[in-house]
Hints:
Blueprint: E1 2-6, E2 9-16, E3 21-25, H1 32-35, H2 40-43, E4 48-52, H3 69-82, E5 88-93, H4 95-106, E6 111-117, H5 125-141, H6 144-154, H7 157-162, H8 164-175, H9 179-191, E7 205-210, H10 218-227, E8 231-236, H11 243-246, H12 248-260
Amino acid sequence: MAEIVVNGIRTYYVEDGSGDPVVLVHGLGGTGTDIWKKQIAELAKNHRVIAYDVRGTGRTDVTPGPYTIELLADDLAALVEELDLGRVALVGHSMGGGIALQYAATRPERVRAVVGAGAVAELPPQGKEGMQTRAETVERDGMVAVAETVATNGLAPSFREAHPEEYQEFVSLLASNRPEGYAAQCRALVAMAVTERFGQVQAPVLLVCGELDQASPPAMNEANAARLPDARTVQLDDCAHIIPWEKPTELLTAVHGFLRD
């Protein structure tokens, strides 16, 4: 991994390939290389691919909160500028999809396309309450207190049964988060309202969701697409929230086709 200072923080990223730039943005509890481990090499065959650790995650600095989606999108903007990427395509998972859409809304001239995989742009009231409780839990009891539950809810039963080693790997990934960074990201999700800026997004958007996704269910995905000026959707059968791991081939097919179009 390489290190770069963006927006005042040390940020770690990997880069591979050449061509039109594609930036991969992971979600809550992930890292750039872990969440996108099944996509980086394939996308790099046709694109210059950058995957980075969001503020508070992985090897990137944890800074004092509060965090906001606006701040995390500013970090992304600084990374794009420092690496001289120009107009980019963004592929974001979960919270990363919200960051990508926030970036596209506030910097429309810098975005060629956006793909949101299980993208979360605004939580419903019950989701906000649960996320606030999760932040308080990890601050009090540590990441182990939530890691297994979050992994179980995020991965489809069929995937957990067929790939127990990857399920345990995901539990371990979540448990390795620093509680202060994870909690700050949780609270950024509570306050997030990217849907209010959907009308400002000029780039074409593809929203991919899993049939069993609880964080970004199909009905929410369709509603988000309807509010965006130029959006289409893809639904993946027998898939929950961790789409890059559960359906890597299907996600790559959708991304390749969308970016080619």
